[in-house]
Amino acid sequence: MGIEEKLPAGFLLTSVEKLAGYMRKSSVWPATFGLACCAIEMMAVGGPDFDIARFGMERFSATPRQADLMIVAGRVSQKMAPVVRQVYDQMPEPKWVISMGVCASSGGMFNNYAIVQGVDHIIPVDVYLPGCPPRPEMLLNAIITLHEQIQNAPLGVNRENAARAAEAAALVATPTSQMKGLLA
Ligand code: SF4
């Protein structure tokens, strides 16, 4: 968006990418989005024992327009799904999503019509965090994983190329309906 599209390819772009990645990962502001029991563990990372302020993230934003990370903490009901999407749409680019806990990632033990069977049906997810509930240390680990992704995220033409490669890989991937495993 904007100046990013005008950046020239090559050495200069690589340097700008590194600098932008460092600045972005060091200033991620989460949106307040606790949906169920997982949210209690998410709140714990703000306390002195886990101290999310070390990453410059102590400011949980009550408005999506000043947030760039959505931590979906808890099961997503069908009724809440449009709200999740609306809050995500109101967040400015670039933005990231952590799906916290089995319920948010796959519906978990709530295999029924009332719960969305994975928040990635509604919004794109960058990091899936397993557990019921995941411990605060696990959330910190997911945040560090996300930082690595943000640090190495391409910009400009490089981002375009990465998106095309990801799309090509998705088109030749085995459809989920044809995957056979323990539950087949
Ligand atoms: S994963 Fe466990 S702790 Fe988290 S929302 Fe689901 S039931 Fe609650």
Along the chain, the helix and strand elements come as HEHEHEHEHH
Q: Strands of the biggest beta sheet: in what spatial order?
A: 1-2-3-4
Unreliable residue stretches = none
| DSSP strand tally | 4
End-to-end distance: 43 Å
Give the overall form.
globular
Put the structure in a nutshell.
The protein has 184 residues and is of the alpha/beta class. It has helices spanning 11-25, 38-44, 81-90, 102-106, 136-151, 156-172, and strands spanning 30-31, 69-73, 96-100, 127-129.
Structural account:
- This protein is α/β, with parallel strands linked by helices.
- Helices cover 38% and strands 8% of the residues.
- It has a 4-stranded parallel sheet.
- Helix 1 runs antiparallel to helix 5.
- The protein is globular and about 50 Å long.
- The relative contact order is 0.16.
- Bound molecules: iron/sulfur cluster.
